[in-house]
Amino acid sequence: MKTINLSEQNSILNQYMAEIRDVDYQRNRLLFRNNIERIGEYMACEISKTLSYKQKEIQTPLGIAKINLPEDEIVIATVLRAGLPFHQGFLNVFDHAGNAFVSAYRMYTNREHTEVGVRAEYMASPSVEGKTLIIADPMLATGGSMAAGYEALLKNGKPACLHIACVIATEEGLDVVEQAVPEDTTVWCASIDPGMNEHKYIVPGFGDAGDLCYGDKL
Ligand SMILES: O=P(O)(O)OC[C@H]1O[C@H](OP(=O)(O)OP(=O)(O)O)[C@H](O)[C@@H]1O
Ligand SMILES: O=c1cc[nH]c(=O)[nH]1
Ligand SMILES: [Mg+2]
């Protein structure tokens, strides 16, 4: 598995990351979702550089333009609910892509809230057989949601190529995902943070992605 951490190079991504992490700025849900969406757009453009291209002739009103166009059939998958604005960013860029949604949510499995398990219940996905599958989920903490999401999607075929996209990852989560995915998978992230707290939240991270996008849940 190859991991590409986009924050190793300075870019405008740093500004989006600073805004989603900032405890005051992130209170505005519209701005928070918008920043997650544009991180998705930025990452999708980076992934687009790795696709296969074939030259096509495009008839303009004045002549013929030769343009290399992507050939991959893309499916963008996400994990509800925090994944939705991130997914939208990818879809803004890959507007011809198919779309898949998996519900996989973290639940504490002990009274002290120090262990988490993941429950996957719902999936709506086209065939992913032979396609380029991008699974976009903003947080890769324990890695449980991503591994469960990938396993659920395999019910609809074997992708030719797998990209995992997240905003923030941890080394622990990356190790878990590496055990679950094919060797030639690429993980894209905007940061690898040092670790997690006792409740399995990424530190420094930015908090609960789903709640910041959509508000508290019971
Ligand atoms: O790597 P993990 O430890 O599995 O954590 C990552 C998951 O946590 C967040 O979702 P969450 O379970 O908070 O659900 P939500 O989107 O409904 O808030 C995030 O979007 C991931 O799906
Ligand atoms: O820090 C974390 C970890 C998992 N899910 C989140 O939303 N945030
Ligand atoms: Mg959450």
From TrEMBL:
Domain Phosphoribosyltransferase: 9-215
Extent of the signal sequence: none
EC number: 2.4.2.9
Domain of life where this protein originates: Bacteria
Class of this enzyme: transferase
The protein's name in its UniProt record: Uracil phosphoribosyltransferase
InterPro entries xrefs: PRTase-like (IPR029057), PRTase_dom (IPR000836)
A GO molecular-function annotation: uracil phosphoribosyltransferase activity
Keywords: Glycosyltransferase, Transferase
Organism, scientific name: Xylanibacter caecicola
Coiled-coil residue windows: none
